[in-house]
């Protein structure tokens, strides 16, 4: 079964790797890589690796289209997560060494 999409990296076809070489002598090209759709990157597991052959191609896409990507869900104000901060002295080893451990606990204000 050959279920695939072409890598969406804008420069995927410019990377000098042997697995991108196609064509016969005299008319060879570097071709965009295929991204196989498997149980590991499709359906419930859909992710960036469903559309990009590598982290580099994903970064190229995100950097090229950052304005369009941000326009999908613009952040116009900061979000906040209610927390409680507790400090505790923790002893370690067999000597008198202690360190201060800072514990951050998320507070559920919705009565949960
Ligand atoms: Zn790619």
Structure description:
A hairpin with a 6-residue loop joins strand 2 and strand 3 (29-30). Helix content is 15%, strand content 25%. The protein has helices at residues 55-64, 66-72, and strands at 4-6, 21-22, 29-30, 34-36, 83-91, 98-106. The protein has 2 helices and 6 strands; from the N terminus they run ββββααββ. 10% of the residues are buried. The protein is of the alpha+beta class. Bound molecules: zinc ion. Zinc ion binds at residues 7, 9, 12, 33, 52-54, 57.
Question: How are the elements arranged and paired?
Answer:
Layout: E1 4-6, E2 21-22, E3 29-30, E4 34-36, H1 55-64, H2 66-72, E5 83-91, E6 98-106
Antiparallel strand pairs: 1-4, 2-3, 5-6
This protein binds zinc ion.
Q: What is the gist of this entry?
A:
The chain has 112 residues and is of the alpha+beta class.
Secondary-structure element order, as H and E?
Answer: EEEEHHEE
Q: What is the number of helices?
A: 2
Q: Based on CA inertia axes, which overall geometry fits?
A: elongated
What would you call the structural class? alpha+beta
Quick tags:
112 residues; alpha+beta; two-stranded antiparallel sheet; two-stranded antiparallel ribbon; 2 helices; 25% strand; elongated; binds zinc ion
């Amino acid at each position: 079964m050959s279920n695939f999409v072409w890598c969406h990296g804008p420069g995927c076809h410019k990377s000098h790797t042997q697995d991108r070489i196609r064509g016969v002598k005299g008319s060879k090209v570097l071709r965009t890589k295929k991204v196989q759709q498997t149980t590991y990157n499709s359906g419930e597991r859909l992710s960036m690796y469903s559309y990009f052959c590598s982290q580099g191609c994903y970064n190229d896409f995100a950097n090229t289209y950052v304005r369009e990507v941000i326009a999908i869900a613009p952040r116009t104000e900061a979000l906040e997560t209610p927390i409680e901060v507790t400090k505790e002295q923790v002893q370690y080893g067999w000597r008198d060494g202690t360190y201060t451990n800072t514990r951050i606990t998320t507070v559920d204000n919705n009565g949960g």
